[in-house]
Predict the 3D structure of the following.
Amino acid sequence: MVTRMPWANIPTPTTPANTKPSGDKFSPRALGAWRRVPLAFRACAVALSLCLILPGPIDLSAQAPKHKKKKSNKPQPVPCHVGCKPDISKPEIATDTPEDAAAQKELSDLARALHSATPGAYEKLSAFAIKNTTNMWGARAALALGYDDYNKNRTTQALGWLIKAQNDALLREYALFWTAQAKHALKRTAEAYRDLQTIQSEYPNSAMREQVLESLAAYAVELGRPQEAIDAFNAYSATSTKPALLVERAHALRSLHQLVPAAKDYQTLFYKYSQTDEAQAAGPALSQIMHALGREYPYPGVEMKSSSPCFMILQIPRGSVRNCASPNAACSSRVRHP
């Protein structure tokens, strides 16, 4: 039996040796892939805060720490005037009327108070949302309330707000993503899956594309449609360079018993991305796939193996068990070879 090891960066409860895990014990989701979702939510919350709270454009250079530099004798570079600096300003928010300007200021103040956990802030923002039900300010208030409720495990209440938040065209993709997460938490996975499909079709260049793809694939597997997850991963050219996506694709491939391509994804994780949390799931999975495939197992080439400090782990003699001597976290997995 292979003992699940705690992940390096994510608190994971250790399974007792006499406890039999349910389902696929080496499933990425069983090993904690679902724990990454709150991180995606926090990333989205930053964008929401920028839209609701921060006034004016976002000047990243002003926020960067200043360091003293030695004087250089090199000639000064010619300054670039057009097309050189990326556009990092926040989306334009229409405040053509005094009423809109006042509503934006009130919303910003209330959202900041909610974020700071000021007593009574939730009730005041709720009243603001109800008062502005027919305009975008009410929708943005609903998004802030829905996010707050979700993070406090008030999922049903959060879902009501998040559905209302979809009326805001500017932040609709965020509202759809959070709506999907809330529905999934309420065991409404089929509806959550459709919401994520909507984001894919309506926002193909979304900044949340990878988070959406990761959740969509996990839901597809849950719904017994893993091929749709695989197709979605294959359609995204960066999948092979993203450990979080690779581990989900490997899981989908295993669920269809496509063990050879699954092994290749796990090998990429185990060797090329050996310092990631996802590599922790790859070691045990490879061990089971080797047992299942026997002589048909596609052993990795020298180039891939030599890219990781753990490259000797798959060279262990037949039938033996050994811990890799490398301090790398992924090497701590015990791998039994057929």
Q: What stands out?
A: The first strand starts at residue 321 and ends at 322. Residues 27-56+101-213 form a domain with the Serine Threonine Protein Phosphatase 5, Tetratricopeptide repeat fold (CATH 1.25.40.10). The two ends are 13 Å apart (CA to CA).
